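Run LysR family transcriptional regulator through structure prediction, thanks.
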Amino acid sequence: MDVKQLRYFVAIAQQGSLSAAARRLHVVQPALSQALAALETELGTPLFTRGPTGVVPTTSGTELLHHALAILRQIDRARAAIQSTLDTASGPVRIGILHSAAPVACAPLFTRLRQEAPGIQPQLVVGYSDALAQRLRRGELDLAMLVLASDERGESDAHLYEENICLVTPASHAGGTPPVELPSLQDFPLLLSMAQPLHQSLLALAQAQKLRLNIMGGVEDISSLLLLCETGQFSTLLPEGLAGTLTRGTSLVVRRIAHPAFSRRVVVRACPDLPKSHAVIAAERIMKATLASQV
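Sure, done. The structure for LysR family transcriptional regulator is below.
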């Protein structure tokens, strides 16, 4: 197999049809069909299931797609590294940003990347830690913010910050802003989204402490979550930096959780299977400088 075949294969998989892939690649469809047939013959297995509305990767096709994306990414980065002057950071850099940090991190990071490394073309992708880690392993991201598990050392990762998880509650429920003990969370009507890993962690901690939380429901979208809390009926949990920024000027107050404290470590990790280009090295440096102070 060659690079052209892999590019054709990826385009077909991403577009879902040979005709759409041909238009995207600016090639005639018979050439695309011939390249796909040759690739399937070489590998000895069908790569797509054909249907009336298009094509879908088979199990073998899905496996090849993961490898093909990583291979093409390496080739693109090698080309960018060679074409650069070796002392200039340039080219696209794909960066995973935590869902909980995105509202306060994306704009400052993008702006600083463009200011300090104008040759870089940042592509910021928002997601939860586990999903970002998977995309990093598949070579779909160059760098990603990740939350370390309590037993994970992360020795090869660059430390960003440790953040406290706080209760966000209407001022009328708060009694000031002193820390709230974990068992006292049972007294608050909580909105906890099962889609948010942070909220899942709280539920696991509460279960370990044999606490019965008063869960009223959940909303994944943070802006909507805070709007509901502002009605005075609900409380929720957010990382301290995000909570402080988003509740400024509202009727909500932020209280740290104590006894036991509830916190997590956030790092930036590079794709383990790809060499770091000058652009990735520069982006990682700027990420550490920006996010450690912004979030």
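The mean pLDDT is 88.
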